[in-house]
Design goal:
8 helices; Serine Threonine Protein Phosphatase 5, Tetratricopeptide repeat; mainly alpha
Length: 159
């Protein structure tokens, strides 16, 4: 092939890459890659830390479709809420896990953790609904089954 043909092909590829559609694709792909990097940083951070929270928040902002980022972000907020007892952190955790449940409605872990958060927020009806959803999705998921026992009426023993 002559160099003029190769130059034409190369010029055509560069023009397509940097056209409006090519640039948007490039940026979206770059954001997904950066989100993965932030997820890896978050997983390497201490469990109950603001570094972990920051890393997963960055990942979720870069790639709103990243399920792992929202699951881990919810867990990070939950861990901090348990550690410090702030209701606002529970609400933040609920928001992240609701996003995860929207991305993957069949994720029992997200519904289970949402149920636990609603319990701490004293929203017992939503708590029960989420625990029932987690149990329906995965009947072998024992934490959901055990937590649902909280809602069973007490048994009376007759003599």
């Amino acid at each position: 092939m002559s160099s003029s043909v190769l130059n034409f092909i190369l010029l055509h590829l560069v023009a397509n890459l940097f056209s409006l559609g090519g640039a948007e694709w490039w940026e979206a792909d770059r954001a997904v890659d950066l989100a993965r990097v932030w997820c890896e940083k978050g997983l390497a951070s201490p469990r109950c830390s603001y570094q972990r929270l920051h890393a997963f928040r960055q990942a979720a902002e870069l790639d709103p479709g990243c399920l792992q980022a929202y699951l881990e972000l919810g867990e990070a907020y939950y861990d901090l809420a348990i550690g410090y007892g702030h209701q606002d952190l529970f609400r933040q955790a609920a928001g992240a896990l609701e996003a995860a449940a929207r991305l993957d409605p069949e994720r029992a872990q997200a519904h289970y953790r949402l149920g636990a958060i609603y319990f701490f927020l004293k929203d017992f009806e939503r708590c029960r609904r989420e625990l029932e959803t987690a149990h329906r999705i995965d009947p072998s998921f024992s934490p959901a089954a055990a937590s649902l026992r909280l809602f069973d009426p007490p048994r009376t023993t007759e003599k």
